[in-house]
Design a protein that fits this description.
Layout (H helix, E strand, L loop, with lengths): L1 H38 L19 H9 L2 H16 L2 H24 L17 H20 L13 H24 L5 H27 L2 H6 L2 H5 L13 H24 L1
Helix pairs in contact: 2-6, 4-5, 4-7, 5-6, 5-7, 6-7
Length: 270
């Protein structure tokens, strides 16, 4: 009996020792993993879509950093206008902007010219995508306002005159020039890279305007507007001859005047 008891005690000691050793081993493994993580920290990346390097001591550099976000802002504007207006002209312009970006992507990988040596960013620099983007947008807007937009006056709206549309076009072009110059000031591109980007954006804007003019004259835009998807999403083509807000404003004025007339009649009946 005593020998059996000793055997049981010995077995329990072995089991306890095994459990203790296993626990210590797990703890030691955790410590080793922690030390390894401290010695080899994970590689962190920057979300470069809105990441801009600038000189914090230079106010002009700070302004240029904001100008660098113009393409992102224009993307938001495109999406907002497309969803809120469902205008075919805006869809065509957005499609051209996308193709222009694809063209820039291809040109950069074909030319393979590096950015300025003091630049810490990634990717090739020729041509400047910012310069190409804003030049396409501003020139496309200018061509639309001066050569395609033919607004007619209504009872509730007097459209911009040609001089007003010309002034708006000049403002768009000057803004694009400011964005392009900011890329040089921030050392993201050389002057030549920016000039080539502007030339590519301007050239493609003219080509795309000619292409969309053909689509309109040949009846392709009218055909597309009759298709199921266009009808489903209520795509229309009014901005060429109308103000975007005019129809809604006319309905609001009619409703407002009707309410006023009802109030006046109510007061008279009292």
């Amino acid at each position: 009996m005593d020998q059996a008891a000793l055997m049981d005690d010995h077995s329990e000691s072995i089991v306890a020792g095994t459990i203790t050793a296993g626990t210590v081993g797990k703890q030691q493994k955790r410590v080793e993993n922690t030390v390894a993580a401290m010695e080899d920290p994970p590689v962190l990346a920057s979300f470069s879509l809105t990441h801009v390097h600038y000189n914090a001591a230079d106010r002009l550099s700070y302004l240029c950093a904001w100008l660098a976000l113009a393409p992102q802002a224009l993307c938001v504007i495109y999406v907002t206008l497309i969803w809120s207006s469902r205008e075919a002209e805006i869809l065509l312009m957005a499609a051209g902007q996308f193709v222009c970006e694809v063209l820039n992507w291809g040109l950069k990988r074909w030319i393979k010219e590096e950015r300025p040596p003091e630049m810490h960013g990634k990717g090739y620099g020729m041509p400047s995508s910012h310069a190409q983007y804003v030049t396409f947008f501003s020139l496309s807007l200018t061509l639309f306002l001066l050569f395609r937009h033919d607004p007619h006056p209504t009872e509730t709206h007097t459209p911009f005159s040609f001089l007003q549309r010309l002034a708006l076009s000049v403002l768009a072009l000057v803004s694009a020039a400011a964005v392009a110059v900011s890329r040089i000031y921030l050392s993201y591109h050389t002057p030549r890279q920016v000039l080539v980007g502007c030339a590519a954006g301007a050239g493609f804007a003219v080509v795309w305007f000619g292409f969309t003019t053909y689509l309109r004259s040949a009846g392709w835009v009218d055909w597309a507007l009759e298709q199921y998807l266009a009808r489903l999403f209520r795509v229309r083509d009014l901005v060429v001859q109308e103000d975007l807000a005019d129809s809604g404003w006319a309905r609001w004025e009619e409703r407002r005047l009707r309410r006023q007339a009802i109030r006046v009649q109510g007061k008279k009946s009292r």
